[in-house]
Design brief:
The protein is built from 3 helices and 8 strands, in the order βββαββαβαββ. It has 149 residues and is α/β, with parallel strands linked by helices. The protein has a single domain, classed as D-tyrosyl-trna(Tyr) Deacylase, Chain: A. Strands 1, 2, 3, 6, 7 and 8 form a 6-stranded mixed beta sheet that branches. Strands 4-5 form a two-stranded antiparallel ribbon. Helix 1 crosses helix 3. The chain is globular, with a radius of gyration of 15 Å.
């Protein structure tokens, strides 16, 4: 499982002209799932997300977590995190899990963020063509991978 976290001052997802989820400061979490991923890995990555210290303290050092600052998370499914572009010019997505496997794992990740105490967890719409607006803060972008936990 891969989660690309972008620290934002604002983020939103629009589908068919309607906002399906939006947050103020926090993370936009682009989440990709591969075939072997489990809900247990989703729970571990949610804990890591909630407690990752990449928000500034009073001295300007990245020393505070999402929970410390009361930030939100906008969870967006992103199968392209498992793109393989080593051959040719068209990426292969064979390592990305099928929707029936990926959706429950992504839902578990979001549910575990709520259980961890994240005050606002919003979502895109799984499988939809989404317009994602990201107002990067920093910019700070962190890749989490369940293979490296």
């Amino acid at each position: 499982m891969r989660v690309l976290l972008q620290r934002v001052s604002a983020g939103s997802v629009t589908v068919d002209g309607e906002v399906s989820g939006e947050i103020a400061s926090g993370f936009v979490a682009l989440v990709g799932v591969t075939h072997s991923d489990t809900e247990a890995e989703a729970a571990k990555l949610a804990q890591k997300t909630a407690n990752l210290r990449v928000f500034s303290d009073n001295d300007g050092k990245m020393n505070r977590s999402l929970l410390d600052v009361g930030g939100g998370v906008l969870v967006v499914s992103q199968f392209t995190l498992y793109a393989d572009a080593r051959k040719g010019r068209r990426p292969s997505y064979i390592q990305a899990a099928q929707p029936d496997k990926a959706e429950p794992v992504i839902r578990r990740y979001a549910d575990c963020l709520v259980k961890a105490g994240v005050p606002r967890v919003e979502h895109g719409i799984f499988g939809a063509l989404m317009r994602v607006a990201i107002q990067n803060d920093g910019p700070v972008t962190i890749m989490l991978d369940s293979d490296h936990l």
